[in-house]
Amino acid sequence: MKEKMPLNSTSPIPMPSAAIAAEAKRAGPSTTEDHALPPEPQVALPKEGPAPAPEPEPGRTPKMRAQNVSVFYADKQALKDVSIDIHEDRVTAFIGPSGCGKSTFLRTLNRMNDTIPSARVTGHIELDDEDINSSDMDVVQLRARVGMVFQKPNPFPKSIFENVAYGPRIHGLGNTKADLEQIVEKSLKRAGLWEEVKDRLGESGISLSGGQQQRLCIARAIAVDPEVILMDEPCSALDPIATAKIEELIHELRGRYAIAIVTHNMQQAARVSQRTAFFHLGEMIESGKTSEIFTNPTQKRTQDYITGRYG
Amino acid sequence: MSSVAQPQRTGASQDARLRKRYAAERRFHFAGLFAVGLSALFLAFLLSNMMWKGLGGFTHYEAAVPIDFARSDLMLDPATLKGPDASEVIAGADVEGALAKSASAAFGPAAEEMFGAAANRSLSRQLIRDPGLLGRRVTLWLPVGSKVDVAAKQGSDAASAGLVGQLKAKNALRRTVNMDFLTESDATDASAVGIWGALKGTFLTIMVTMLLAFPIGVLSAVYLEEFARRNRWTDAIEVSINNLAAVPSIIFGLLGLAVFLNFMHLPRSAPLVGGLTLALMTMPVIVIAGRNAITSVPPSIRDAALGVGASKMQVVFHHVLPLALPGILTGTIIGMARALGETAPLLMIGMRAFIAAPPSGLTNPATVLPVQIFLWSDEVDRGFVEKTSAAIIVLLLFMLLMNGLAIYLRNRFEQRW
């Protein structure tokens, strides 16, 4: 029960889930695609409005498509027949209680589970209509196209510059020092870290604060110019202010990259995502527009989780 | 709330508990201090004892002896001493006899044997350097033989002591630094021995060991830890490596004897074979240390590198290995230090032979410092006692130097992050 929500919190995340659900129910479908970080709760909440958000049309091809994905660790099935689409220009949030398989699913999207010897993935995952598990797909190229940000900030124990330049260098994106410097500057600017570190690019990435380290990791991920960014609970090790900065960053990155984020913080999912999938005990219970999942879930389990009955 | 029996936070029982805890902490503190103190004491005793006995080995006594070359029986032509065969010519001449005669003429019959091989060598060298000495009467300072040297340093048997007294009275005895000890090799005469041959042999042997054991050990560790599939074979290899690290070193000597000498017919007593044998012995230590160092690299670093699209090999060589290197180097230092001090396996492959010239290559006969120490400690001549201790000092310094270098390298790699 580590996700118990504070009911009268004064923290910068002052949105009890029950309140969101209740208020959102009143308000109806969302139009708030483009909200910035909420200075007050209302901004994040769905508002009255006739036109629904420009949700992807059914006919439109998603960036990534997972069909009937199951994951087994040795004999234990961790994920059961999950099917979900990840769209361009959208942030897709995976929520659910601990151990529900949301991180496992995220890691199948760039085949990070390959590194676990006992893990076995079945089902079909496509990136731009290409099967990522086929023999034609080079896993290294895949991971360059589908970048990842991890739960704990994990910068390399190298300089800030090297941290960002490493990816482009191994992929041959910047052949000259000037190219690399440009890529590093651009990536750090996109990650909102440039102003803070521009005078000390030679310092160790480890010397930064936790939130800065995580933004450095995001800069590192976008330096190789990926198409999709996977974020595995990127804020769980950060304080509220650093969390707010990361969330702001996610808003800014949306549109440039397809983003999938795992979080067990429901307010976060509500704030940053346009689409949400709820996982429970290895199954995907339901997925859809964030506004609908939070206001009008079709499944009882989703409803119970969102209102804080368990979690 | 307060109905349940709560632990007493105040009062007598609390004080007693506190006292007990403090006492236990104090006891532990003193026990630790005692242990550290005791080991420091032993180390200090060992080092001071070695220094006390060994520093004398770096000095020797020289006596001034008047030699009249014109009237000696030395049948030497100054012209031949200028040629390239000078050392052979002089070896054929009876330098020793001429020296004995001059000594007994100057200091009486008891002094006939006061000079040994060291004096011969010194005199021969001076003659080669200055053939003009022949035909003149000169007084030369020459190192005394082992018996007189020991008598002068410690005062032993009566005959030599009398001679020492006589020399001192005539102001014909002085103590100087024994440079020959650092530049010469083994000899039968304690006054003439040197450490250079063994030092060079050690250097060559360790070089072979290092060049073989370090890369092979590190690559094995990397492969087993990062690339090999976990199955029965890798399990078997792991068990074998752990067992190999615990095998007594003499067994490796027997293995070296059987494989390198009897089967491959490599030359006996050679640094090459010694290095190969020691490499066999050191490699398991490096593999184990390397695997531990590689496992202790946090998995988040691997994830990070994989996440930006690094290949398996890039992950290992760009991230894991640099981070593991300090640990690997520590293991290598331990393995190398053990190899450096190893005697038993080298005895088996013939490095205990008497070798009077420093090895000029990897296949020349050689000995190493620990074996040299072992051989000298077995000698009857009392002159060897301080030579043994002096050799131990040289070995310890060599080891210190090597470890210092390794620690310097390790720190450099650690700072490079």
Strand and helix layout:
The complex is a heterodimer of chains A (about 300) and B (about 425).
Chain A (H helix, E strand, L loop, with lengths): L16 H11 L13 H4 L19 E10 L2 E11 L4 E5 L6 H7 L10 E9 L2 E2 L7 H7 E4 L10 H11 L6 H14 L3 H4 L12 H14 L4 E5 L7 H14 L4 E5 L3 H7 L2 E6 L2 E7 H6 L4 H7 L5
Parallel strand pairs in A: 3-8, 3-9, 6-7, 7-8
Antiparallel strand pairs in A: 1-2, 1-4, 4-5, 9-10
Helix pairs in contact in A: 5-6, 5-8, 6-8, 8-9
Chain B lengths: L11 H43 L4 E10 L17 H7 L2 H13 L9 H13 L7 E7 L2 H9 L3 H12 L3 E5 L1 H5 L12 H32 L4 H14 L3 H15 L7 H25 L3 H9 L4 H29 L3 H5 L20 H9 L5 H33 L2
Antiparallel strand pairs in B: 1-2, 1-3
Helix pairs in contact in B: 1-16, 5-6, 8-11, 8-13, 9-11, 10-11, 11-13, 12-13, 13-16, 15-16
Can you characterise this structure?
The complex is a heterodimer of chains A (311) and B (417). Chain A has 311 residues and is of the alpha/beta class. Chain A contains 12 helices and 10 strands. Chain A has helices at residues 17-27, 41-44, 102-108, 139-145, 160-170, 177-190, 194-197, 210-223, 240-253, 266-272, 290-295, 300-306; strands at residues 64-73, 76-86, 91-95, 119-127, 130-131, 146-149, 228-232, 258-262, 275-280, 283-289. In chain A, the strands form 2 sheets. Chain A has a 6-stranded mixed beta sheet with strand order 6-7-8-3-9-10, with helices on both faces. In chain A, strands 2-1-4-5 form a 4-stranded antiparallel beta sheet, covered by helices on one side. Chain A is globular. The N and C termini of chain A lie close together (6 Å). Residues 1-57 of chain A have low confidence and may be disordered. Chain B is mainly alpha-helical and 417 residues long. Chain B is built from 16 helices and 3 strands. Chain B has helices spanning 12-54, 86-92, 95-107, 117-129, 146-154, 158-169, 179-183, 196-227, 232-245, 249-263, 271-295, 299-307, 312-340, 344-348, 369-377, 383-415; strands spanning 59-68, 137-143, 173-177. In chain B, strands 2-1-3 form a 3-stranded antiparallel beta sheet. In chain B, helix 5 packs across helix 6. The longest helix of chain B is centred in the first third of the chain and has 43 residues, at 12-54.
